[in-house]
Amino acid sequence: MISLLTFIPLIAAGWLLFIPKGYERMARWLALGATLIPLLICLNLIKHFDFSAGGLQFVEKHSWIPNIGAEYFVGVDGFNILMVLLISILAPLTILASWNIQERQRTWFALLHVEIFGLYGAFTALNFVHWFIYWELVLVPIFFLIKLFGNEDKNRAALSFFIFTVLGSAFMLVAFLLLRVKTGTFDFMILNGLATSGKLPAILGDWYPVVFFCILLGLWVKVPLFPLHVWQAPAYTQAPSAVTMLLTGVLSKMGVYGFLRLVLPVFPEALNTYAYPLLAVALLTLLIGAFAALQQKDIKTLFAYTSLNHVAYCLFGFFAVGLSASGIAIPARELVIQGCILQMFAHGLGAAGLFYMAGILEERSGSRRIADFGGLGTTLPHFTAIFCILIFSSLGLPFLAGFSAEFLIFSGVFAVAPVFAGIATLGLLATAYFLLSLIRKLFTGAEKSPLPILSDMSQREWLIAIPLILMAFWIGCIPSQWLEFSRQTVQQTLTLFP
Amino acid sequence: MLPLEYILILSAVLFFIGLAGVLIRRHVIIMLICIEMMLNAANINFIAFWRYNPNPELHLGPLFTLFSIAVGGAEAAVGLGLVIAVYRFYNTANADKFDMLKDS
Amino acid sequence: MPSITFLYWIPLLPLVMAGLLAFFKPNAKRVASFLTVATLLACFFFSVKAYLIDIEIEKTLTHNFAWMHVGGKSIEFGVALNSLTSSMLLMVCFVGSLIFIYAGSYMQDDERKTRFFCYLNLFAAGMLGIIVSNSLLMLFMCWEIVGLASYLLIGFWYHKPSAAAAAQKAFITTRIGDMGFLIGILLAFKYSGTLLFYTDGGTGLLQSGILSANTNYFCGLSLSATVALLLFIGAIGKSGQLPLHVWLPDAMEGPTPVSALIHAATMVAAGVFLVARTFVLFEGSPCLLNGIAWLGSATMLFAAVTALGQYDIKRILAYSTVSQLGFMMVGLGTGGVAFGMFHLLTHAFFKALLFLGAGSLIHGCHHEQDIRKMGGLLRTMPLTGYAYLAGMLSLCAFPFTAGYFSKDMILLGAWEHNKAIFAVVAFSSFLTALYMTRQCLYVFFGNYRGHHHPHESPFQMILPILILAVFAIGGGFFAENIHLFTFLNPVGKHAEHNQTVVFVSWGVALGGMLIGYLFYHPIRLRSGKDPLACLPFGIYKLMENRFYIDEIYAFTVGNIWKAAGIVCYLFEELLIVIKVITEALVNKLARLCANFGDNTLIVNYGFDNTCEMIKRRAHLVTAIQTGQVAAYLRITTLGALLFVLTFWILLKIKI
Fold it and tell me: Chains with ≥3 Cβ pairs under 8 A against C?
């Protein structure tokens, strides 16, 4: 089932390339259909998902290149099921978001589908070789999408995006080759088993920290964390909004997912040892993200920094897993990891929505500068309402998606590192400040005269916004349903920690 | 019986006379005649090797020679045709004057 | 044991209505206001039911359910019913309904009336949620919803930049307090593992004493006191105490019913309610209670002094609210739950009355808010005027009005607790009487100084005002009759009746009004200059400009904030510059490789050059090609001979 889910977009991409000229309008229907089928499959997966089992489900395992230990190995568990769902929700929305693209439609949709294919693969593959192919593959369509369809400074943005992420991947590759040499396997589950029995540090010996830091560096760029986040803002700003939806919604979660899949079950000792420095880095990232956003003049750049800040919350929670405290009455580790997973999901939807709204604004007015707008509340009431709901979700208003995840993370981190959590609240405050300032500048006051007459949300745009808004409320009001997906897996994995 | 070497030497001499004629003489017709001489040297070899073969019952030598003479005749005809065409173009039969092969 | 699950409906009904109204046309005229009032009346009905159950059963009733399960622990939500809940519910629903009726008329002509009622419902949902909540987290979440609703309502006329700015300021300032609140929640959660106030098993935060075990947790404070302190920071933000009071006066940018509902009767009281709800945590620490009392009295004095220097009718009331909230905090700090809550309830009536009255005045004077441009309105708007005067008397604690009873209690509590606080509070009460007298003399007496023709407001606006006026005057007797004080505080301490305090109480109220009358006599106001303006050292200017607190904040906090932003921004820029330089270097390196390796080595000295050389030397070889057949033949023969010769020699050597 997972293979089907993964390969449908690829087949669609191939098909799209062979659609004859003059039938471009058909291409988008084909593209939409090819994303809806995986959505149905994914819903079916969820329907048959066994909540009481913590291990892998729907496993498909075939021998592939035995000589180098490569296998075709896919499966879902609590760590990635929500991410698969996230991709299958966002994929049709990105297609819809680029519905009216004017030139090179076939290339555009084909590249998007290759990207979606890579993302499905990257979140379900469980053998390093298999996984790494996808991990690299997702960079390529994004590179071309930015390069071919991006905004004014697209070439540089595409290049630095590619250089940085490939650099990270190189370190990742080195780490896994070392692991392969030492342990003789590329299989994530076997590595997890080795870590569970406590043999891994002994096997790796002096190489343990090297391997750990190489993997860390690979994920560091992808998330990204300070100071390797410099590729992020230009890439998010220059990419067309549909691509940015995928970039921020799913691609940035690949790094966090990497932490959950590669670091948490395999390197618990290292997480214990380096907990404080790592936590400090995450804290620094989230503060920098929040405060740097205060000064931004470009809507998409501002959202890029918001995104940096919010993804850093995931890791802020994640790194606290290595700490422990005595005398506390709550399971801090479960709280942070569950919060981290929920935050990935919630932010994926919310941030994609925000970038989409920014994209609409850009499409209508041709500008991204905040100063060019004003008084939009009167002319675009529906747009304003949706934008504000997404903003409030993003700044952590209760009963919306952001809050429940952030509360879990903060409660867990506060239990083990109160000072860090205390400082991080400054980030929350700054987020509220600049997001509300954005609302004030865009929507209130008098209308700016040079602005062309903008039209309110079209039906297609409603179609994109409504699922995102509904999900924001759903996650915010009934988080327990979403937490249920990952509960068993998290509990099983956390037995690794004393 | 005459030793084979004698006949071979005869044919070699004949061949080299022909060769020398082709290389030295300038008149195209003479060069053609010399080429025919070299052909005949080969024909003598055919006959000689046939005659001194362990089983001369197979009449391969005369057959080859007959073929060769026929081909030589045809070749001479084509050669003479060519000579006439070239002569008409250059108004001379001196081979040193034929320099159209050089790409200039 | 009666089921109390119906309590869930109290916040849910307005919430559903808010959701419903969000999909209405923005200008659906009467339907929206009718539905809203009906909703709140339904809530009022439930509140009465809750009150009756509560009287019947004295202990706290709860109903809880799990909101999230994480790692074997569940975070629970629920509702609780005790005297605090039921009295507050009655007040909010009752005052709320009246204000909603009033709003229906006040906002009559607004294009986005439906949206307004949608926000009002959202607000009511949040506020009622705070009251019924049995979980600290649920309370916090509703608290934030209330903050959101107030943001939306203050900024309702968003095309005015000042309204938008005020809305943002309100949200951010209260959020500063909320961060303290949030940390308090996290701290309580960390050590207790539960966020429920009460459970049937007696394991709730407020029952088990689980937090008071650690006696020296933070700077000499016990754990429970630390949690209490952090929660109090939240209350400071919401209830506009020093130093986070700045948002409240600015929030008067919103429509007047909003000011009445949010910034007088209910939302700002949420902070006081929070302290009252979690008072068990505060009790163990006299030091903390003392601090609260001092902060409250400082706020009270400060706000009363500032109110004396204001000319905007709503701003005066706003500072009055800040001052009265400080007063409630004094009550909580010196006496206990009942002292503060009693005043909260009576205050809600007369302050709502004053705000609605002010709204009616503003409406009648064609949106004129400056008291210097009013005057003599008692003649043109008699109903509003007399009702307003009733509210004013109650606020000044004129004997036997509602305000008198509650104020008396707090003064008694303060007298027993600390004489210095008592002195400050008494002086502030005097100032309260003074500024209210000033305002009323400006507005209702003398001659009209404006340029419009004031007129009485429509009946739908007058009715709530009159009802509230009845309560403002007679509320005290009513409260005495149902033994509200004992009801609120069945076991806590009771203040002893004290002759001195009563004397002081009468003295400051009547004295303040008398001096105010002499000082602001209508004849003296004709000059157009405020009588207090003659105070030395520019004190009056200081009061007029609210002690420049906003400017100081803008200068200090604002600049620090901005600086942090700029520092981060520059830092980012620096990183980007480093990135660009690195990229440029890489580029340079690549170009160097290309130039040197490709151009120099390969192009110049390698393949190309060789080819070039061959081309140049080729004429030597091409000389052989003469074009003469004979020459070719010769060379061919030579070649053949050489060939044969080579083979022959090779054969020879081999043999």
Answer: A, B
